[in-house]
Hints:
Layout: E1 3-7, H1 10-23, E2 28-30, H2 39-51, E3 56-62, H3 63-68, H4 72-82, E4 88-94, H5 97-102, H6 115-122, H7 133-136, H8 140-146, H9 150-166, E5 176-177, H10 179-192
Helix pairs in contact: 9-10
Amino acid sequence: MKYTVLGDGITEQYYLKYLKEIKGYNYSIRPSLFERIELTDARKIIDELLESGSDGIVYITDYDTVVNQNRKREFNSLKARFKDNSNVLICESMPSIEFWFLLHFKASGRIFQNADEVLKALKQHIPDFEKTKRWLGNKLWVKQLCSDDKLETAISRAKSIEKERTKGNFDSHNPFSLVYLGIEEFEKWKNSFKP
C-alpha cells in the first residue's frame, strides 16, 4: 500500500515526520525536501500521486494563507476536484496548524485574528515553540503533543468544534482544524499495513 501526506510548510512536515515515527504510521511525506508548497503545487502532486497508483493522500494546509492571499476560489476548486475521490483528503486548519497543536492543551472557542495570535496562545503551553528548522527538528515537541492522551483530547476537541461549525454556529474567523481527519486516516492506514 502506498500512502502519502503533503505538508504545507516546514512546521507541518516536521510534525508529520515525527508523528509517523512516534505513532508508527505508514506514509511518505511530500515534498521530501521540506519546501513550502502552494495550492497549484499541491494539485499537481496529488494528480501525480493518483496517476502512480497511490492508495491514499492527505494534504494538511493552513487556511489563513488561503484567505490572506485571496485564494478561496482556488482552494474551493481544489477541494471540489477531489471531493468524490475517497483516496484524497484535504485537512485545513484555521488560521493555522498551530491551532491544532493548541487543542492538545485546551479547548478554545476564542476567535483568533491570525496565526500569530494562535502562536502566542500555544506558547503558554510550549513556551519555547519556534517555527525554525532548528527548533522543529527536535522531536521532543511532537512527543509532548502525543503524551498523556493529548492527541486523543485534541481529536475530541476538534470534532466538537467541527460539529458546531457544520451547524453554522461559527463565522469565518472562528478557528477550526480538520487535522483530526488525517490522524484518523493514518490510523486506518496503520491498521491496514501488513509487513
